[in-house]
Structure formats: structure tokens, C-alpha cells
Amino acid sequence: SLIGRLMFELPEEMGLIAIAVRQTQGKGRGGNVWLSPVGCALSTLHITIPLHSNLGQRIPFIQHLVSLAVVESVRSIPGYEEIDLRVKWPNDIYYSDLMKLGGVLVNSTLIETTFHILIGFGFNVDNSNPTICINDLITKFNKEQGTKLKALTADCLIARTVTVLERLIEIFQEKGPNGVLPSYYKYWVHSGKQVRLHNEEGPIAWIVGIDDYGFLQVHEEGKGVESVHPDGNSFDMLRNLIVPK
């Protein structure tokens, strides 16, 4: 709310970020409210993207770049490359394909020829309950591999995420989706996974990738590759998918 009021009052070239130590009214999809205790990396970032740019013409890709930036904030540290942090389309951060560790929510406002983007991201760095956290994954890795990797802090990972995101945006603006998709696919959880189309008894399709606008691509036998959207209702965004008319 604070950044939403400030972002139009400051020069476009000035960066703006809000960082919370804990969160009692975090916003999720569909009006969900998130409670986040101390130990999570919580922030909202304001950026501007020109409409007539590679990313401005494919603005849904922002959430994928942010998810990738969160994962790379850990896995680009020397020694931490094998910490099993991954992206789940469209906006989740996962431990392997087992547990959600965080998420991303993006709101955009177009004013004349500039997108004002508010990026909210949060991920669990140091809370073992109720699920698992990044430092638990590091401890697990140390035990299994005999390494002595240090625990990470929320402020370090927020800083690294923003730095990585800046680089990913520059790459996307220069090269388009193909500049970032190899890294995205390296860390995503979906290769070869099955989903149902239309409803829970609908036809089975196989996930093959994401298209130039960030939507999921699936292959249904006999019908080729199609782009699909979430149905908007299910808690798990991949439980039901719809093919847009």
C-alpha cells in the first residue's frame, strides 16, 4: 500500500523497495491473505518497463523472471548450486517438486507508454515449521554431502534476488524469451508432467514448456501443442487448465 502511493511521486529512474520483517496482511491470488513470521524474505519492489520493449510486449513474463531470480539468488552462490530450489509455473518457489517455499505476485499499471510494476515476493528462509525452509535444505545438503555451507539470511537473499532480477530483465530486453528460458527450464519442476484439461476428468496433456507470452504449453495426443491458462478456481494452479478460445 505504501509503495502504491509513492511510486507515482518519485522519478522513474529511482528504485523503490519495501521490506517487511513479518507480514500480517500479505496479498495472494484471489484475495488470499498471507501471514508470514520472522524468518521469511518479504518485499515489494517497484520497477518500470517501457510498453514498446521486449518485456513490455510480454508483461506476464515478469512473474517468471522473479521466480527464477529467487531460485538463482541461492543457486548462483558458489557451493550452493545443488540446493534443490525450483520454480513452479506460474509463480511459486518449490523444494524439488514436493513443498512450496514461497511465491510471487505481480500487479501492473499502464500509464501512457510505461508499465509501473509492483512485484511482491516472499520465501521461507529460516522457519522449519510448518513445512520447510531454505536453511533446512542447506543443513540437509551438508549432512548428505559432508559440506559446511553456511546458513543464509533473508536480507542477503532479497538483495541477491533484486540484483539477479535486474540482470534477467536486461537479458530479456535484449534477447527476448529465448535469452532466459534455458535457465528457467533448468530449474522448473514440470518437464514431462501430466495435467488435465478443462476439468478433473478432462483429457490428459503433457507439459512441454511456456510460450512467448509466458503461458503454459501442453501437448494433447492427436492435437499438437496448445497454450493453456489456469482455470482460476483451483488452489493448485495446475489442477485444472483451460484452452482459451
From TrEMBL:
Keywords: Ligase
Pfam families in UniProt: BPL_C (PF02237), BPL_LplA_LipB (PF03099)
GO function term, MF aspect, one: biotin--[biotin carboxyl-carrier protein] ligase activity
Entry GO CC: cytoplasm
Residues in BPL/LPL catalytic domain copies: 1-173
Protein family according to the UniProt entry: Belongs to the biotin--protein ligase family.
Name used for this protein in its record: BPL1 ligase
